[in-house]
Backbone:
């Protein structure tokens, strides 16, 4: 009887453990955004950055773009799938005048068999979500960068960029921004001087390239509030 009760209790505990919802990656990071917003609510219609760690680690991004209201909601080493999951918190909690996306690199790096078709599919899903909420908000997609630590995935990065670029060229109010080429040598090799020690994330020199590429595409507040822009 004692042995039976022990087994029964063990089964009950195991069942309860399975019933508990699994912790979703990046929950704490995303929850921190809500706390930040409660203390310092975003003013007006910011330029919203969403995506993965290349944005997450760009902690001084506002200094690169003086005169623009930048709201950085990049989190962790997120994938497009993660951005889709947390869209209510990192997208729909705001009223952006422009959305800039950097994501897709981790989708490929996390898979033993990287699928550029899957990256494109997820990006299309993200675009549909955005368009359902804001039919004309301008979107900029930053191409997947050529990280030295992931050089074995370079062909997949190039292919994913081409797939996404091809899709974007058929859409309205969305631009493809190629930073990939600018972060390679003229011979098509990586530039380690643009990265920190992990050879994955950028240093100030890498972000300076991004700044120079992004700046001409930023939408000023007055333009966002002009006639015909119903966001």
Residues:
């Amino acid at each position: 009887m004692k042995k039976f009760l022990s087994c029964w209790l063990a089964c009950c505990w195991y069942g309860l453990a399975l019933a508990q919802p699994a912790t979703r990656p990046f929950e704490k990071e995303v929850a921190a955004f809500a706390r930040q917003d409660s203390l310092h609510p975003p003013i007006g219609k910011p330029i919203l950055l969403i995506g993965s760690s290349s944005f997450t680690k760009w902690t001084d991004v506002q200094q690169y773009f003086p005169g623009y209201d930048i709201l950085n909601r990049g989190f962790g080493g997120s994938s497009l799938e993660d951005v889709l999951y947390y869209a209510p918190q990192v997208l729909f909690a705001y009223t952006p005048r422009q959305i800039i996306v950097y994501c897709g690199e981790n989708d490929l790096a996390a898979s033993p068999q990287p699928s550029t078709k899957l990256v494109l599919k997820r990006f299309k899903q993200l675009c549909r979500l955005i368009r359902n909420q804001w039919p004309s908000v301008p979107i900029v997609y930053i191409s997947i960068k050529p990280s030295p630590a992931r050089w074995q995935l370079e062909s997949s990065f190039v292919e994913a960029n081409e797939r996404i670029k091809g899709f974007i060229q058929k859409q309205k109010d969305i631009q493809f921004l190629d930073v990939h080429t600018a972060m390679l040598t003229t011979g098509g090799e990586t530039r380690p001087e643009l990265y920190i020690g992990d050879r994955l994330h950028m240093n100030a020199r890498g972000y300076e390239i991004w700044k120079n590429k992004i700046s001409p595409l930023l939408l000023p507040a007055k333009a966002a509030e002009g006639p015909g822009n119903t966001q």
